[in-house]
């Protein structure tokens, strides 16, 4: 067994499958494993898959240099309400900010509009006497006796975590820090979150909602990461352990435990990272990343070579795709949309006779009907199998047998009868509806950002995406599709393409020409020192970079745009440049600028990051390239015609330069790509499957 530390492992836990990829950093050789997720104990699937890839590489745990882990644990805990029993200490009179929110209605015409229940019920939200002004001046020091009384009152509630969010604490955290000292001295066993540490930014609802969410998932995430790290150490692993953040960077275990709210888009962010990596390798500045797994589909945009980013997220939406209907989280993240369209998405015919696919999923348990476990409802995977896209004997490279007869019963009984068609016709309808859902979502998402997708390349990955990518691209108007090698486990590889990074923000609202530059420079310098210290503790001291920016808006406007700032000390000599940069950013978003209205700053941001890892991999190949054609089978396409006798190719036997005319099926161990009639496919120098669509 090889025990020299030169292996890197990426882990991505999804709703249906857990993917693990191992890279030998000496040779670039890659090994991968895909196992069913174990929802009750997610670490079990991780450990199983890690053991599998180490076995493939004939290596042991001591040979692992680093593990990077993407997880949906924080998101699922919020959605499923499985977090800790949490309390909130707020400024007296402001304990209901979690429910009053922004007082905005996401649907003006719904008389029975519903909003998500707060993570912390009212009986565990307690107001205490204290007051800080917007400029940081403490008007009323904290009444520590009231904090003690609140802690005593909460004993009977069995509270595990406590969030502290005082008014204007972003401007001066003194009263929150005083509350923290009382809590830690009196109830040291409680998990503690302060808004001034999690989000020192203006915006009361966003700050209290984010602080509450961080406290709510902190014990669960800390316990899970500790147990997984402990299990890996027991097996002999001594490598560095990092966790993917929502911003597309990685965090140390300590930072992930302290700020678990920054892990909400952990798994999807890894997919965006690998998409950006491949966009650079392809020299394609504009890429639509299409990540379709077993439970959801994620769509994100790479524009001019860089992922689009956001500072706001929503989870646990009452209406799954309705913006404003969920819990607001203010956290740096890659910008993407997530829809309930995966291999496990369940198909149903409603009371009006209309076919709907998703958003609910069969997941890993009970799974699609074709898995032969407890699932009996028809899913997208069942439809793909009946249409001939999947090989019942070669799912996961033959490790998992599918049952087409059970898929046919589920589709015919639950969809076919209601639509007046047979199982094949119903399966074709399921395929078309789910693709149309994803294409519509992508089109709306792009339109909201002022982007024309017709000039983009669609990069498909995730276990289900290659089978649906060409039809989705056709509906959008995209003419080129790329399917990377090992597309089914690519997000796990994205974990290894992400730099260690941490984002900081502080709220400071001033008209731009009245900014106290000495104060701004001092705040930035302190944050940069802290960020560099975090990287040093993670073993990263070279090639550390710092990126500065500010959220600006016209005076008293509601929405801001982000404006990059130059490195180095800032001062009044930059005012003309900063105004011009704001006008350019505003014009890019809204198509015009207004020079007569003063500009003000709202939030100031800093990202400290290490170098982006070099990702040089060598994909496995087997056998004679001339034997890539492994057989033929009938395949049904969404054009209304009869089944077509299609050639089926083994992906890892196709060498660069190989060309294939559609229709064709190309299989690998983790996914299956469908090349439609009239399309042309070839293998490029990256061993990526390129598909050119006509029209």
Question: What this model shows, in words?
Answer:
The termini are far apart. The chain has 16 helices and 33 strands. Among the domains are: 7-77 and 223-263, Nucleotidyltransferase, domain 5 (2-Layer Sandwich); 82-214, Dna Topoisomerase Vi A Subunit, Chain: A, domain 2 (3-Layer(aba) Sandwich); 501-609, no CATH class; 625-692, no CATH class. Strand 21, helix 13 (465-476) and strand 22 (480-483) form a beta-alpha-beta unit. The strands form eight sheets. Strands 13, 14, 15, 18, 21, 22, 29, 32 and 33 form a nine-stranded mixed β-sheet that branches. A six-stranded mixed β-sheet has the order 3-2-1-4-11-12. It is globular. With 695 residues, it is α+β, with helices and mostly antiparallel strands. The mean pLDDT is 91.
**Could you give the count of β-strands?**
33
- N→C terminal distance: 53 Å
Low-confidence runs? none
Shape assignment: globular
The portion of residues assigned to helices is: 25-40%
How would you characterize the largest beta sheet?
9 strands, mixed
Count of discrete alpha- or pi-helical segments spanning 4 or more residues: 16
Overall pLDDT level: 91
Report the CATH C-level class of the domain at 82-214: Alpha Beta
Category from helices, strands and their pairing: alpha+beta
Radius of gyration: 26 Å
Second CATH tier, the architecture of the domain at 82-214? 3-Layer(aba) Sandwich
């Amino acid at each position: 067994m090889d025990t020299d530390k030169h292996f890197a492992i990426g882990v991505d836990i999804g709703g249906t499958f857990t993917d693990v990829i191992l890279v030998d950093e000496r040779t670039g050789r890659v090994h991968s494993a895909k196992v069913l997720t174990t929802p009750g104990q997610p670490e079990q699937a991780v450990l199983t898959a890690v053991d599998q890839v180490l076995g493939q590489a004939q290596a042991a745990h001591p040979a692992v240099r680093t593990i990077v882990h993407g997880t949906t644990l924080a998101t699922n805990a919020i959605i499923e309400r499985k977090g800790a029993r949490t309390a909130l200490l707020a400024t007296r009179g402001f304990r209901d900010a979690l429910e009053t929110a922004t007082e905005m209605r996401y649907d003006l015409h719904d008389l029975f509009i519903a909003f998500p229940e707060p993570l912390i019920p009212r009986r565990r939200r307690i107001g205490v006497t204290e007051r800080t002004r917007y400029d940081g001046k403490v008007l009323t020091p904290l009444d520590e006796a009231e904090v003690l009384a609140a802690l005593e009152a909460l004993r009977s509630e069995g509270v595990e975590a406590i969030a502290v969010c005082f008014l204007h604490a972003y401007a001066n955290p003194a009263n929150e820090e005083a509350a923290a000292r009382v809590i830690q001295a009196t109830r040291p066993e409680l998990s503690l979150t302060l808004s001034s540490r999690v989000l020192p930014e203006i915006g009361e609802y966003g700050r209290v909602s984010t602080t509450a969410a961080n406290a709510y998932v902190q014990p669960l995430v800390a316990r899970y990461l500790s147990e997984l790290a402990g299990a890996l150490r027991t097996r002999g692993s001594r490598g560095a352990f990092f966790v993917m953040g929502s911003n597309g960077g990685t965090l140390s275990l300590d930072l992930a435990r302290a700020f678990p709210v920054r892990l909400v888009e952990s798994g999807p962010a890894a997919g965006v990272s690998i998409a950006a990596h491949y966009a650079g390798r392809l020299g394609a500045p504009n890429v639509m990343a299409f990540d379709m797994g077993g439970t959801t589909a994620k769509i994100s945009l790479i524009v001019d070579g860089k992922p689009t980013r956001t500072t706001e997220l929503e989870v646990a939406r009452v209406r799954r795709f309705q913006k404003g209907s969920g819990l607001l989280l203010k956290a740096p993240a890659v910008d993407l949309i997530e829809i309930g369209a995966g291999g496990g998405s369940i198909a149903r015919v409603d009371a009006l006779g209309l076919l709907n696919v998703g958003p609910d999923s069969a997941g890993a348990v009970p799974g699609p009907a074709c898995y032969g476990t407890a699932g009996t409802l028809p899913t997208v995977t069942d439809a793909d199998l009946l249409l001939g896209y999947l090989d019942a004997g070669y799912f996961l490279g033959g490790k998992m047998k599918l049952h087409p007869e059970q898929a046919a019963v589920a589709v015919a009984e639950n969809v076919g009868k209601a639509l007046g068609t047979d199982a094949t016709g119903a399966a074709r309808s399921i395929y078309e509806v789910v693709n149309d859902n994803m294409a519509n979502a992508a089109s709306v998402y792009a339109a909201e950002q002022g982007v024309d997708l017709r000039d983009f390349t669609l990069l498909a990955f995730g276990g289900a995406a290659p089978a649906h990518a060409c039809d989705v691209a056709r509906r959008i108007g995209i003419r080129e599709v790329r399917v990377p090698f090992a597309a089914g486990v690519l997000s796990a590889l994205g974990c290894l393409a992400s730099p260690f990074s941490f984002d900081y923000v502080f709220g400071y609202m001033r008209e731009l020409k009245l900014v106290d530059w000495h104060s701004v420079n001092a705040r930035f310098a302190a944050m940069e020192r802290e960020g560099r210290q975090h990287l040093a503790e993670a073993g990263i001291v070279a090639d550390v970079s710092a990126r500065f920016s500010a959220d600006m808006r016209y005076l008293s406007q509601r929405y801001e745009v982000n404006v990059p700032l130059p490195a180095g000390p800032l001062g009044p000599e930059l005012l003309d440049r900063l105004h011009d940069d704001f006008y350019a950013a505003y014009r890019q978003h809204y198509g015009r600028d207004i020079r007569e209205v003063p500009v003000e700053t709202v939030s100031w941001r800093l990202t400290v990051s290490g170098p982006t890892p070099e990702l040089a991999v060598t994909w496995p190949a087997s056998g004679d390239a001339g034997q890539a054609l492994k057989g033929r089978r009938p395949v049904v396409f969404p054009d209304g015609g009869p089944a077509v006798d299609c050639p089926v190719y083994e992906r890892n036997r196709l060498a660069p330069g190989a060309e294939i005319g559609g229709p064709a099926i190309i299989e690998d161990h983790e996914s299956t790509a469908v090349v439609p009639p009239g399309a042309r496919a070839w293998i490029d120098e990256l061993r990526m499957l390129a598909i050119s669509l006509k029209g």
